[in-house]
Specification:
- The strands form 2 sheets. The protein has an 8-stranded mixed β-sheet with strand order 1-2-4-3-5-6-9-10, sandwiched between helices.
- The protein starts with a strand and ends with a helix.
- Helix 1 links the parallel strand 3 and strand 4.
- The protein has about 260 residues and is α/β, with parallel strands linked by helices.
- It is globular and about 50 Å long.
- It has 11 helices and 10 strands.
Length: about 260
């Protein structure tokens, strides 16, 4: 389905959930991560959205995160039409906090998956790449392009993780308009999304990865001062693609939190 220049998909019935992916990927990645969870936790209507210039969405006249936030707000008001759970992964963790900053009355719960804290590439206290598990036979069977893509930020290099990466990450990465992302879109806001007058009491789950080379895990802990009703978890042996590297742990964390909030 389309709303303005945004492509989206709706699955299920119940409490609405707006699920937003990170920089350069698509709703395919988020469906791979969250559908196994929502198939076991009933009562949620999932809105998976492709951000401008990613997945099946056109970039339109979008230039920065303020423009994207405006589109997301219009989508929420015109399509979702009631308060919802917002889920933001990586760059969308920044977008989600911008949404909470400007429109907190529309948000019932928050999940931040490896959220970007500071706009830009590898900003803040990020980790050095440290592979914790590798299958050299598998890596030797990949093409040069596959191997370079797979080893860029993943820290668990096994066949199971490769199959997930090939299914849920590579097609999303290939669908992105990289000229737009690299040369046009500014990921920054014109305001600080974490500059809020009063502490946010909306229930919030923050999932970080201990070996995350892109956004790290230490800066995310500081969000607990702003989001006072929050749960923070840093997963060991996981990088920025935590949801495919430690899928069972990730799914159990989210399921348990949803069932208790």
């Amino acid at each position: 389905m389309k709303f303005a220049n945004l492509d989206y998909e709706v699955i299920g019935e119940g409490e609405p959930v707006l699920i937003i992916h990170g920089w350069g990927i698509s709703k395919l990645t988020m469906k791979g991560a969250f559908e196994p969870i929502f198939r076991e936790v009933d009562g949620y209507k999932r809105f998976y959205i492709d951000l401008p210039g990613m997945g099946d969405s056109e970039h339109g006249d979008v230039k920065n995160s303020d423009d994207i936030l405006k589109l997301l707000h219009e989508f929420a008001v015109d399509v979702i039409k009631e308060p919802f759970l917002i889920i933001g992964q990586s760059y969308a963790g920044l977008l989600a906090r911008g949404f909470v900053n400007k429109f907190p009355e529309l948000i019932g719960k928050i999940i931040l998956l490896v959220p970007c804290m500071i706009p830009g590439v590898k900003k803040g206290r990020v980790e050095q790449l440290k592979v914790v598990q590798r299958d050299d036979e598998l890596l030797g069977s990949l093409t040069k392009e596959e191997r370079e893509s797979f080893t860029l930020m993943n820290v668990v290099l096994t066949k199971v993780v490769w199959e997930r990466y090939k299914k849920y990450l590579m097609p999303a990465l290939e669908s992105a308009d990289w000229d737009f992302l690299n040369n046009v879109l500014d990921g920054s806001f014109t305001f600080d999304p974490d500059d809020i007058e009063e502490p946010c009491e909306i229930p919030c789950l923050i999932i970080a990865a201990k070996q995350d080379t892109e956004v790290g895990y230490k800066d995310q802990f500081d969000l607990m001062e702003k989001y006072t009703n929050s749960t923070y978890i840093a997963v060991e042996n996981a990088g920025h693609n935590l949801q495919i590297e430690q899928s069972e742990i990730f799914e159990n964390i989210v399921k348990n939190w949803l069932m208790t909030h």
